[in-house]
Write a structure and sequence with these properties.
With 151 residues, the protein is of the alpha+beta class. It has four helices and nine strands; from the N terminus they run H-E-E-E-E-H-E-E-H-H-E-E-E.
Length: 151
C-alpha cells in the first residue's frame, strides 16, 4: 500500500463538507431503553447544519432515538471515514416543512409521508465531527467540537 500524505485541516473540511452534501446514506448507531445498541443504514438529507433522517417510529432505531437522543453516525468507507457524534430530536412532518420534506424525498429516493407505516423524522445535530483516511490522519481528525467547526 502506498502511503498517502495526511490532509491538512482545510482539505479535510472541504472533503467532509462534500461528503455531507453529496452522500445519500449513512450508518446510525443508537442505544436506549430496552432496545439496546443498534446499527442501521439510513438515507439522509443534510441542510448545512444538521442531518434529517426518517425511520419507522416503532423500529428499534426509532424507539432508541426517542428514548435517548445520543447518536453516532458514520459516512464513507473505512479508509475515508467521517464519524459524527450528535443529538437526535424527533421532528413532526409539519415541523419539517413541505420544502424540506420534498428535498429529503428527492435526495433519498423515498418519501416517508407516502408510506402506510408511521415514520418519524429525526434531526441530528452534530456535536463532534471527525474525519480520517489512514493512521497518519488520526492526529487532527477532529473537525467540529461542541457543535462548532474548527478552522
Amino acid at each position: 500500500m502506498t502511503a498517502v500524505p495526511a490532509r491538512g485541516l482545510e482539505e479535510r473540511l472541504e472533503d467532509t463538507r462534500k461528503r455531507l452534501e453529496n452522500d445519500v446514506d449513512l450508518w446510525v448507531a443508537s442505544a436506549g431503553g430496552s432496545g439496546g445498541a443498534y446499527l442501521i443504514p439510513l438515507s439522509f438529507f443534510w441542510d448545512g447544519t444538521a442531518f434529517l433522517v426518517s425511520t419507522p417510529r416503532a423500529s428499534v432505531t426509532g424507539r432508541n432515538l426517542l428514548a435517548d437522543g445520543r447518536v453516532r453516525v458514520a459516512l464513507g468507507p473505512t479508509r475515508d471515514v467521517v464519524i459524527v457524534d450528535g443529538a437526535a430530536e424527533p421532528v413532526d412532518v409539519a415541523e419539517v416543512g413541505e420544502e424540506t420534506a420534498d428535498a429529503f424525498a428527492a435526495k433519498t429516493g423515498f418519501d416517508p409521508r407516502e408510506l402506510d407505516q408511521p415514520y418519524q423524522y429525526f434531526r441530528i445535530r452534530p456535536l463532534r465531527i471527525q474525519a480520517w483516511r489512514e493512521a497518519n490522519e488520526l492526529a487532527g481528525r477532529t473537525l467540529m467540537s461542541d457543535g462548532v467547526w474548527l478552522g
